[in-house]
Every structure is written in C-alpha cells, then in structure tokens.
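Usage

Read records sequentially. Each one opens with the input sequence:
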Amino acid sequence: MAQHLKDAIRRCIADAALATFAEAGLEGATMAAMAGQAGISTGNLYRYFASKQALFSEVVPDAFVAELSGRLGLRLQTSQEVVDVRELAPGHPYLDASEALLDYVIEHRLQTVIVLGRAEGTSYAGLRETLVERLVRAALDHYGRTNGARLGIVLREIYGNYVNSLVVILRSLEGADEIREAVEGYQRYHLVGLDALLRSQAV
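and closes with the structure output:
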C-alpha cells in the first residue's frame, strides 16, 4: 500500500476516533464503531492501532492538555489587574491571552470536548474539576475575597456550569465564527453575573 494512502487512512481513523470519543468517551467508544465511522474493517483498524487506549493517546496527546493548561494559566494571570474587561483597549495582554486560548480551543474543538466533558476512565478524568478550582481561586483572588464555604460552593456551581456550557457549544457547533460568537456571548453574560455576585455584600 502506498505511503500516502496509509497516511490518509490514519487521518481518517483519527477523525473517526475524535468524533467517537467526543460522543461516547473512552469507556463508551468501541474499536468497531470507530472503524465503521472511518469506513474500514475493525481488523484493518488494529493494523494501525493496537488498542483503544493507544488510539486515544494518539488523538488526545498529553502535549495538547499541557498547551491548553498553559494558555488558560496565562489568561488567568493577565486577568488579575483587570477591573472591567469591557474597558480594555485592543492589544491588552488579557484580551490577547483570551483570544489565543479561544483560538486554540476552536482549533482543537473535539479534543477539548473530550478532556472537559468525556474524560471518564482516562488520565484526564480530574481535569474539569481542576479547571473549575483554578477559575474559582482566580475569581476570589481578583476580588480579594476569602474562600468562605458558602461562596466557594456557589462559585464551583457557577464555574462548573460555565465549563459545561463551553463543552455544549463546542460539541454542538463546528464553524469557527459561530463558536466564537457563542462563546463570547456567553462570557459576557457570565462576567456580568459573576461581577454582581462577588461585589455583593450579601454573599
């Protein structure tokens, strides 16, 4: 078989695997389902990947998660001196970091869906909770609030729903422009509510 044909089949398998893992997760996905979506036999799939775990590691590598985490960290870091994102001038580090993070998420749409919404049974199973905790901590630090039990519970619910909504958007939409519009619209709604909550003296 010509090498370019093998490469094409491998890419087809990877695309099928990403779609299947994003829909069913590692535990729910089967080699047969991925082979069927790729349009090849299950036996042929095993010629390229010895196991489901090997295929998962191929399409959701550690390097992707490390890059995603790094871009999120930069966004959180640049947000600490921001009072109101609506007043920032173009080119502000926070806006640049936010744009870079969103670009990366859109470019790796299904990988993001998998690690944040379908990671059960993988080494990334705790990533969603870790992300939520980072967001909670950053919000508390930004507003100079202590992590009281009640406020912590409320913020974990808010940020849990925020991450869930991001996963739904990425899973439901495919075009970069429509994803960007949906995410940015949701973020505006989220930031207004969060600001009101954390400035409130009642919490």
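Summary fields computed downstream for this record:
- The chain has a mean pLDDT of 90.
- The chain has ten helices and no strands.
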